[in-house]
Amino acid sequence: MTTTTSEATLDTGATAPSITASSPPKARPAFGVLASISGAHMVNDMMQSLILAMYPILKGEFSLSFMQIGLITLTYQLTASLLQPLVGLFTDRKPLPYSLPFGMTSTLIGLILLAFAPSFGVVLLAAAFVGVGSSIFHPESSRIARLASGGQHGLAQSVFQVGGNAGTAIGPLLAALVIVPFGQRSVAWFALAALAGIFVLTKVSRWYATHHVAQGARRQAPPVAQPYPRKVVLGAIAVLLVLIFSKYFYIAGLSSFYTFYLIEKFGLSVQGAQMHLFYFLFASAVGTVLGGPIGDRIGRKPVIWASILGVAPFALMLPHADLFWTTAFTIVIGLVLSSAFSAILVYAQELMPGKVGMVSGLFFGFAFGMGGLGAAVLGILADRTSIDFVYHAIAYLPLLGVVTILLPRSAAKK
Predict the structure, then answer these.
(1) Of these four, 75, 133, 136, 178, which has the most CB atoms within 10 Å of its CB?
(2) CATH architecture group of domain 31-218+229-406
(3) pLDDT tens for residues 312-322?
(4) How far are the Cα atoms of 53, 263, 282, 295 from residue 290, in angstroms, in the given order?
(5) What residues does the Major facilitator superfamily (MFS) profile domain cover (predicted)?
(6) Which of 381, 366, 402 is nearest to 260 (CA)?
(7) What residue spans define the domains of the chain?
């Protein structure tokens, strides 16, 4: 990607000034760094997804209601969402290269607590430690992905994101193979993966400290030209946050209660339901790979249009489908909907050049917050009605993708 939002024409009729791209001259992406940060993202999100995959086990172990299941997600997502923008804003001003292994260490502590939790309160504490680790990991690692992109920002974000989505997909599979047969304490074995993640992130942090911090200060010294007026930027950010709400509130309902939905509606076993959750999450990982590069080629806005509004027909049909079509629809939904986040994040970064950490923290944090809030609210709704009713209710959320029409229209494709 060579230019960002230069010489753009707005839907409002205003014309943005032509600007010079704020990124350095186009260079070859640092694929070794991208692979490392993506691998660490896989480990980080795999450990986080173990919480999601363990919901049926925890529900039986501690006799939890659906509201309490939602509270676990809320605790994790809330600690992540509140801290991420603050971490991003702080590190925009003062980079902390070695914060990444520290964040992974917090996630490791949460994992150990989860393995040996004697009560629901300790489960919530474990979820909070995992959330803190996520709040530190995502803004800085997203910044490193952009720095290592060689100008191909969408590709770099997709490589980074696919690691996280792959980890999220692997979690239920590992839960089915390891945790269900061997019990809650078998979660402790995954500490070995966390230790490997800490090792990789230490090496990535060393690269960041050596190759960027000093150079980045020199590159960012000149003032960065703003592509749009402040009012337009704020309006576009608000639209993007509505889209994030639509995506993650829907995903919270779909993923947090998917195993229960399959067990109740189709009589699947816990392991069988977790395998279907894996199919959905694996499709999400594949979609993530596609969204960024396509956005680099044809522009962010068309990808956002297709990825949010495009899943609406499948979401509306899903609650009425049999098991075969439920599986098929959720695979399509995961594939298409997951392509949105990389495009949304890079679009927002281009709206506010020079504030990569703050923008990344804001959008990751808001995404986690909406996921947590969605899980809690929909858990209460499920307790008062049914899981099937929840799936009917959330089916309309992707229709909010229509607000994409309000985003500025850029003449630049890359």
Answers:
(1) 133
(2) Up-down Bundle (1.20)
(3) 999 999 999 99
(4) 26, 31, 13, 9
(5) 33-413
(6) 381
(7) 31-218+229-406
